[in-house]
Amino acid sequence: MTTTANGTTRTARMTEAGRQYLAMHLPKRCGGCATPQKAVLQRNNPTGYLGVRHSKRPGFFTAEIGHDRQHHYLGSFPSAIEAAQAYDAAAIRLHGAAARVNFPTEAAGVAAKQNAPTG
Hints:
By secondary structure, this protein is of the alpha+beta class. It is built from three helices and five strands; from the N terminus they run ββαβββαα.
């Protein structure tokens, strides 16, 4: 748990409800985006993570991802790491193994779980 600026506590990881929300509201993985490698960390990005920026709310970070000329808001998080993890989950869901992510070692495990045969 983390404590926010106003003294409330929040969980440090994305909850199962958050994952389900992303699964329902983001489109399914594309068959092969023409340019999934567009996600590049800009030099002027103070957070140091792809798809993460400072929120208008003090002490929060916003995660966003673009896909097929659409902009998807992923949420506001109390830490940049949590926002980066949300971005990674959305990038893997949208782009599969071709996604550029912030935490490649964690993403490899998530992608393997998604591609594993069920049954």
